[in-house]
Design a protein that fits this description.
The protein has about 280 residues and is of the alpha/beta class. Helices cover about 30% and strands about 25% of the residues. The strands form three sheets. Strands 2-5-4-3-7-8-12-11 form an eight-stranded mixed β-sheet, with helices on both faces. The radius of gyration is 18 Å and the shape is globular. It starts with 5 loop residues before the first helix and ends with a strand.
Length: about 280
C-alpha cells in the first residue's frame, strides 16, 4: 500500500519519537558455549569477547515496533519462516552475498568479527559470515529465534548473542567489527532510527570495516516508498536509501543487485558503506 506521508504514518502508529537506546549489556542475551575464540586482546582486530550480557529487559518497543515483533513471533523458526515461505531462495541469496563480499577485497579485515543484525535463526551468520570471519556476534529481538541461532552457527565461531532490537542497540566503544551486516531488517526502522543506527554501526567499525545493508527496494522516484501494515515494514527506493546514507554520514563504496531471484519479486539491493572522510 502506498501512502503520501511516512511521518504521518509513524506518528499515527506510535513511532514519532526516537527509540530509546540500551547498552549492549542491557539486552537480554546469553553467551555461546565455551570456545577457543581469543579473549586476550586479538592483536587489535576486535576479537576480545564482548562484555558478558546480563539478562535484563531491553526497552519496551513502541506501538510501531511492537507490531513487527508480534508478526515475527508468529513465524516458525525455520529458513522458510525467515524468508516468508520462499526458503528456496536461500542458496541464491547466500551465493550473491559471498560474491558481494568478494568484490570488496581488502576493504574488509577478515581476521575481525562480524555483527549480524536482525539475525533471525542465524541463517546468514552460519552460511555467509562464519565462514569468512574470525567470529560472529548476533543481535536478534525474538528470543526463540536467537536460541535457534545459538545452535546454528558453527561451533567455535559464535561469540555472543544479544536479544535486542537494532533500534535500541548501543554498541560498546570497546567493541569493533569488520562488518556490520544488516539484511532484511532496515525496512522495519523509521528514517530517524535507521539513520541513528547506521551512525552507531559506523562508529563501531575497524579501520578496514564496512556496514552492509541488503534489503528490498521500492519501485522508484514516483513511488519512493511502500508500506506494509501486516508487519509494519517500509520499502524505500534506491534514491531514498541513498539519501538516508547521506544523512548518516556514510559513503557507498560498492553496490550490487541480487541476482537469480524469482520473477515478480521485489528488487533486492546490497550497499557497502563506510564513514565519510572529513574534507
Amino acid at each position: 500500500m502506498f501512502v503520501p506521508s511516512l511521518e504521518a504514518v509513524w506518528a499515527e502508529l506510535g513511532a514519532s519519537s526516537p527509540a530509546p537506546l540500551a547498552d549492549i549489556s542491557e539486552c537480554g542475551g546469553f553467551p555461546p558455549p565455551p570456545s577457543n575464540i581469543d579473549d586476550g586482546g586479538g592483536g587489535g582486530r576486535g576479537l576480545p569477547l564482548a562484555p558478558a550480557p546480563t539478562v535484563t529487559t531491553a526497552p519496551a518497543p513502541s506501538a510501531w515496533y511492537a507490531r513487527s515483533r508480534d508478526y515475527w513471533e508468529r513465524q516458525p523458526p525455520t529458513v522458510n519462516g525467515m524468508l516468508g515461505g520462499l526458503g528456496h531462495l536461500s542458496p541464491a541469496d547466500v551465493a550473491d552475498s559471498h560474491r558481494f563480499l568478494d568484490s570488496l577485497g581488502d576493504r574488509i579485515d577478515s581476521s575481525g568479527v562480524a555483527l549480524d543484525v536482525g539475525a533471525g535463526i542465524g541463517r546468514v551468520s552460519a552460511a555467509v559470515l562464519a565462514p569468512r570471519f574470525a567470529a560472529v556476534d548476533i543481535v536478534e529481538p525474538i528470543a526463540a529465534y536467537a536460541e535457534v541461532a545459538r545452535r546454528t552457527v558453527p561451533n567455535g565461531k559464535l561469540r555472543t548473542v544479544y536479544v535486542c532490537g537494532m533500534e535500541n542497540l548501543r554498541i560498546s566503544p570497546a567493541v569493533r567489527y569488520a562488518v556490520v551486516w544488516v539484511q532484511w531488517c532496515a525496512i522495519y526502522l523509521t528514517d530517524a532510527d535507521l539513520v541513528a543506527f547506521l551512525r552507531r554501526a559506523a562508529a563501531a567499525l575497524l579501520p578496514r570495516g564496512v556496514v552492509v545493508v541488503k534489503d528490498n527496494i521500492a519501485g522508484g522516484e514516483e513511488s519512493p516508498f511502500a508500506l506494509d501494515t501486516s508487519d509494519n515494514s517500509v520499502m524505500r527506493s534506491d534514491g531514498y536509501m541513498r539519501e538516508l546514507y547521506e544523512r548518516a554520514g556514510l559513503d557507498i563504496v560498492a553496490a550490487a543487485t541480487q541476482r537469480s531471484f524469482d520473477v515478480g519479486l521485489f528488487r533486492v539491493e546490497m550497499y557497502a558503506l563506510v564513514p565519510r572522510r572529513a574534507g
